[in-house]
Automatic annotation (TrEMBL):
Pfam families, alphabetized: FMN_red
All residue ranges annotated as the NADPH-dependent FMN reductase-like domain in the record: 7-153
Top-level taxonomic group: Bacteria
Name of the protein: Flavodoxin family protein
Length: 202
């Protein structure tokens, strides 16, 4: 079996060590991926002083270049984001803006460096917005070269106007757990196919 790696970018607004529902669901995605021979880790973006911008390196201590290197080394990128006001978090949007730089980065055959990589999503929130968030993030990931697998998102949203967080759910919701397993199976399968046969040069 081809070895694969994954990177989860936790786009919580909270710095470590504050508990994060995005971290919980992102960790569950990594655990589900491990059942398919995928090893991986997670980066909490707020802990890395990532600067705003649309370049691969915004200079002066920018934390993005190291995260980007880890992303390019991985076969699967998972964005884990909370929902705020029905939108992906500001940190998630900043990450997507930084990924815009990949439009101008190509290999020797003219392909974006993200070609052959799989993009997936984990969403948590106390309000509606999971489908809207998926639409925004998936469109951005596809634009910058990632391939989205079927059922490439797992999410949990609580009942309207209540304060329960995903990390407080015990046991975890069965539907979310099953969706996480499906995401992992499809993402690993697609990543393995693409690693064996990348897209042709344009």
């Amino acid at each position: 079996m081809t070895e694969l790696t994954a990177l989860v970018l936790n786009c919580t607004l909270k710095p470590a060590p504050t508990a994060s529902s995005s971290e919980v669901l992102g960790t569950e995605v990594l655990e589900a991926l491990s059942a398919h021979g995928v090893t991986g880790d997670m980066v909490r973006v707020t802990d890395h002083q990532v600067k705003f911008g649309v370049n691969v390196d915004e200079g002066d201590g920018d934390g993005w270049p190291d995260i980007r290197r880890r992303m390019l080394d991985a076969d699967i990128l998972v964005i884990a984001t909370p929902i705020w006001l029905g939108q992906p978090s500001a940190v998630c949007k900043m990450v997507l803006e930084r990924l815009d730089a990949e439009l101008g980065e190509t290999d020797d055959e003219g392909r974006m460096l993200t070609y052959g990589k799989v993009g997936a999503l984990a969403v948590v929130g106390n309000e509606d917005g999971a489908h809207h968030t998926s639409a925004e993030v998936f469109q951005a990931l596809a634009d910058v070269g990632f391939t989205i697998p079927p059922n490439g998102v797992t999410y949990w949203v609580g009942e309207a106007m209540q304060g329960t967080d995903y990390l407080d759910m015990d046991p975890r919701p069965e539907k979310t757990a099953q969706t996480t397993k499906t995401l992992a199976a499809n993402a690993a399968h697609l990543a393995r196919l693409l690693k064996a046969s990348n897209y042709p040069a344009g």
